[in-house]
Amino acid sequence: MSDTFTVTTYNIHKGMSPLNRYAKVNGIAAALKQLNPDILLLQEVQGQHLQRTLQFNDFPDQSQHEFFGEFLSLNSSYGKNAIHPNRHHGNAVLSRFPLDPKHNVNISVNRLEHRGVLHCEIYPPNWSKPLVVLCAHLNLLEHDRIKQYQAIADYVLNTIDPSWPLILGGDFNDWKFKSDHLIAHHLGLTEAYVSHCGHLAKTFPAKLPVLSLDRLYVRHLEVVKAVVHDGEPWSGLSDHLPISAVLKPKFAD
User: Where is the Endonuclease/exonuclease/phosphatase domain (predicted)?
Assistant: First the structure.
């Protein structure tokens, strides 16, 4: 096996087009198959939506993390965050390597936005340590995010071995650029796209991206390459664009 692997983070907008007119689950699956990531972090994953299942022929009956897992031949885990009558959604982690779901951390700070961080441990072949993956989706308001940054930092410091390689990725909704100060520096993380390209990736809105909402932070991992996937077909699949990074461990196997 190569010592490098590819991780992708993507807010899939519950499998719907940017304006919610069309189901895009099949298109998202096909596009992700072309990327062929080893590890996939998804946000706004629809675990169930009975109305859309009936309304759209290509909206799957099964949970979207299971659908993508089967289509891409990846192991999958789902963290349910927002629960409503006949529907729920959250975050998902998918992996080509053995995956151990550990905990879905509730970081909700108000009644309107139900947010979480899905913690999984992944075991690439011949690694001496597990790879910790945290898939996050943060609030829209800055004062809420400040509380969530602290909650994530406390969880990492109290729960995760500081010598283990770590990926913290997802939709940070951080249009004020506070994550680097409050999360990355405090935990010793590097943002993958910044490391490779010198600036944050513009990922929202997908058709004409101007905001840098999506991030991939890493620790004890070398960033070999990072890219934002823009243009067709991505501009019509979700309201966000995905980011991928090619990484390799900094520790000895």
Answer: 9-240
pLDDT the model gives residue 59: 75
CA-nearest of 212, 156, 208, 209 to 179 is 212
φ, ψ at 72 (rounded to 5°): -100, 0
Q: What is the mean pLDDT of residues 16-45?
A: 94
Strands 166-171 and 131-137: parallel
pLDDT digits (tens, 9 = 90+) for 112-142: 889 999 999 999 999 999 999 999 999 999 9
Work out the pLDDT band at 61, boundaries 50, 70, 90. Answer: confident
Contacts of 236 by beta carbon, 8 Å cutoff, 6+ apart: 17, 18, 24, 27, 206, 207
Contact 247, 224 (CB under 8 A): yes
Instruction: Give the rounded distance of the alpha carbon of 30 from its chain centre.
Output: 18
Return the bridge partners of 215, or none: 170
- Asked if 245 and 196 count as a contact pair (C-beta separation under 8 A), the reply is yes
Domains of the chain: 5-249 (3.60.10.10)
pTM of the entire structure? 0.95
